[in-house]
């Protein structure tokens, strides 16, 4: 039996969830009314239920994120929510807090969120042995590390392949709460990493001013899908529960085509859902929101990944300015541009800037706000007006399920039988006096023509057989009516016959890989504490949210490295490092200051608040 491989898309709401499925998603993940790590992307139970029904029609799955850390007074509400989600047919939960594993749960499948910081084979195997059916791996892993985890356990592995990157290890960023009491682990990240900072060295000299030094490019692993499958990944996740419709449809469509090309004639892997999508647009990921792209660390550290100019969308490369004319520009490849497009460029002050195109006259691009830009300035398009308008149409991505129809006669009339690509069957009969056609021309071509008109139904007719003993005449209205009845029935049959995987969590006591947990394990309630204690943990520090020491805390650990970005890494830039930096390096934004500590052996950078006392290791 072939192994299923899926595209997993974000759903900010019901409408975008349906759009993602229509664009080719095999599964979608969505927030419920509470406890999701994007507090601005919540949805009613009624909308989640409607999405479940629509997804199951195509054998696509719906995963609900319940991935914040929980406080004691929320445990009962969380349990009730999970029971409700199970009752409406949700396929799985994505969770961070181990308290959920202690609850009296229905037999619903549990996935470990990337917020659980899933980087280590022992940790991932532990989660699998505890009953997790899938683990969403940390984005920082490379192919070798993914293979190592896959070899340690046969649990399903999910991996982000496109979208924004969190600069911190997921689940271990505390910058937001340390500054403004908005906890990222509680769904309210203030995105401090996207702010501009000054970089100051140990002598107090400002090395870089007003630059987005913690902002990194967006992820694009679309060319790595075969390598990731080989490494053990079976679910390719698109980031973006706060993104717009254009982003969701465009990225889903692009990855759908990439994965389908890999799966074509593949003897080992197959698509995870039903149907096929018809598009009226050519998907290109750089035509929706992006800060420029990186493959991050999947092929190990090999390039700079910072997006220092701006945290906003850079978009699609168009070309250079050839010359400035009166109130407009002559731009390479200006035939790609349209009225209403948004432009992105670096202005003469070295700052990220932009404008909107008012009109293009005689190859002169006239913006709404004119900037004095030098010839050679590189122009990007970060909003494609025509493309956006096209993707916002419902008919830009239409998903259809293949069906075979057999129209035959019965003793008292006629019958239409339908069988879809998954083997679901529907049949309907109507009584009719059999009447021969007055013309000698066969009625069968006309009957087939009308049976093939599936309209707005989710079906496309791949084959029609008409089995008559004579050249019977039939009113078109009767053919249309029986086709409509059969296909309506088939919709209901597909949904009712959908088989959801179920799994009952039972309490386990196998040892956790470590016996002491610091604040980065985010233990914020009594049930999570009980879970870890039963698995052999003896010391458990409270979550950061419950006990941080203002001004002295470590607020982030990351694989991203400011030294590397500056070409000052002794490991990777030995030949070009030049004069060493005087540490500690400090990031400063307004009144907020952070010290940087570089742990070169594991190749990680730590960010500490200004009053922390740090010990710096010697560079080799």
CATH architecture of the domain at 3-165 and 219-273: Alpha-Beta Barrel
Largest sheet: 8 strands, parallel, barrel
Overall average pLDDT? 95
| Percent in helix | 10-25%
Please give a quick description of this structure.
By secondary structure, the chain is an alpha/beta fold. The protein is built from 14 helices and 32 strands.
Task: Provide key terms for this protein.
620 residues; Nucleotidyltransferase, domain 5; 8-stranded parallel β-barrel; TIM Barrel; 14 helices; Thrombin, subunit H; 6-stranded antiparallel beta sheet; alpha/beta; 32 strands
Q: How would you describe what is shown here?
A:
The protein is α/β, with parallel strands linked by helices. Among the domains are: 3-165 and 219-273, Homocysteine-binding-like domain (TIM Barrel); 315-390, Beta Barrel (Thrombin, subunit H); 402-496, 2-Layer Sandwich (Nucleotidyltransferase, domain 5), CATH 3.30.420. 22% of the residues lie in helices and 28% in strands. It is built from 14 helices and 32 strands. Strands 1-2-3-4-5-6-7-11 form an eight-stranded parallel beta barrel, surrounded by five helices. Helix 2 (45-57) packs across helix 11. The protein is globular and about 100 Å long. The mean pLDDT is 95.
């Amino acid at each position: 039996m072939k192994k299923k491989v899926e595209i997993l898309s974000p759903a900010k709401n019901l409408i975008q969830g349906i759009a993602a499925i229509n664009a080719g998603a095999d599964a979608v993940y969505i927030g419920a009314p509470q406890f999701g790590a994007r507090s601005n992307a919540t949805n009613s139970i009624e909308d989640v239920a409607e999405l479940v029904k629509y997804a199951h029609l195509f054998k696509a799955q719906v995963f609900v994120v319940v991935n914040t850390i929980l406080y004691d007074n929320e445990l009962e509400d969380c349990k009730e929510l999970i029971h409700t989600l199970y009752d409406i047919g949700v396929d799985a939960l994505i969770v961070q807090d181990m308290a959920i594993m202690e609850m009296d749960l229905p037999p619903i499948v549990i996935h470990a969120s990337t917020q659980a910081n899933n980087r280590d084979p022992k940790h991932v195997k532990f989660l699998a042995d505890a009953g997790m059916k899938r683990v969403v791996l940390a984005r920082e892993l490379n192919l070798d590390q993914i293979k190592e985890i896959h070899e340690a356990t046969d649990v399903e592995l999910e991996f982000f392949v496109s979208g924004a990157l969190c600069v911190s290890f997921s689940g271990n960023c505390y910058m937001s709460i340390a500054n403004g009491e908005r906890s990222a682990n509680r769904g309210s990240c203030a995105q401090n990493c996207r702010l501009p900072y000054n970089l100051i060295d140990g002598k107090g000299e400002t090395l870089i001013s007003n630059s987005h030094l913690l902002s990194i490019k967006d992820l694009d692993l679309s060319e790595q899908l075969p390598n990731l499958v080989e490494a053990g990944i079976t679910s390719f996740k698109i980031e973006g529960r706060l993104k717009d419709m254009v982003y969701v449809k465009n990225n889903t469509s692009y990855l759908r085509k990439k994965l389908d090309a890999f799966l074509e004639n593949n003897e080992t892997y197959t698509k995870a859902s039903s149907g096929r999508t018809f598009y009226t647009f050519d998907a290109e990921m750089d035509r929706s929101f992006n800060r420029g792209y990186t493959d991050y660390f999947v092929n190990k550290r090999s390039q700079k990944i910072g997006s220092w100019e701006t945290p906003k969308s850079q978009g699609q490369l168009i070309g250079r300015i050839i010359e400035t004319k009166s109130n407009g520009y002559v731009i390479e490849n200006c035939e790609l541009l349209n009225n209403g497009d948004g432009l992105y460029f670096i202005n003469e002050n070295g700052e990220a800037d932009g404008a909107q195109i008012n009109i293009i006259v005689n190859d002169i691009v006239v913006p709404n706000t004119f900037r004095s830009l030098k010839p050679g300035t590189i122009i990007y398009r970060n909003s494609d007006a025509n493309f956006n308008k096209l993707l916002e149409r419902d008919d830009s991505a239409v998903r259809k399920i293949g069906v075979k129809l057999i129209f035959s006669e019965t003793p008292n009339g006629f019958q239409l039988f339908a069988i879809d690509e998954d083997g679901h069957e529907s049949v309907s009969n109507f009584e009719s006096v059999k009447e021969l056609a007055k013309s000698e021309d066969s009625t069968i071509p006309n009957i087939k023509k009308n049976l093939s008109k599936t309209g707005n139904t989710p079906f496309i007719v791949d084959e029609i057989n008409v089995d008559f003993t004579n050249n019977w005449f039939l009113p078109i209205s009767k053919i249309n009516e029986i086709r409509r009845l059969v296909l309506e029935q088939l919709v209901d049959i597909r949904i009712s016959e959908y088989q959801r995987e179920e799994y009952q969590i039972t309490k386990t006591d196998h040892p956790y890989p470590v016996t002491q947990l610091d604040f980065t394990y985010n233990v914020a309630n009594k049930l999570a504490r009980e879970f870890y204690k039963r698995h052999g943990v003896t010391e458990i520090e409270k979550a950061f949210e419950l006990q941080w020491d203002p001004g002295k805390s470590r607020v982030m650990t990351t694989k991203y490295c400011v030294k590397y970005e500056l070409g000052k890494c002794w490991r990777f830039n030995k030949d070009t490092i030049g004069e060493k930096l005087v540490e500690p390096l400090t990031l400063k934004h307004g009144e907020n200051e952070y010290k940087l500590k570089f742990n070169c052996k594991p190749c990680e950078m730590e960010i500490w608040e200004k009053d922390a006392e740090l010990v710096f290791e010697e560079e080799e």
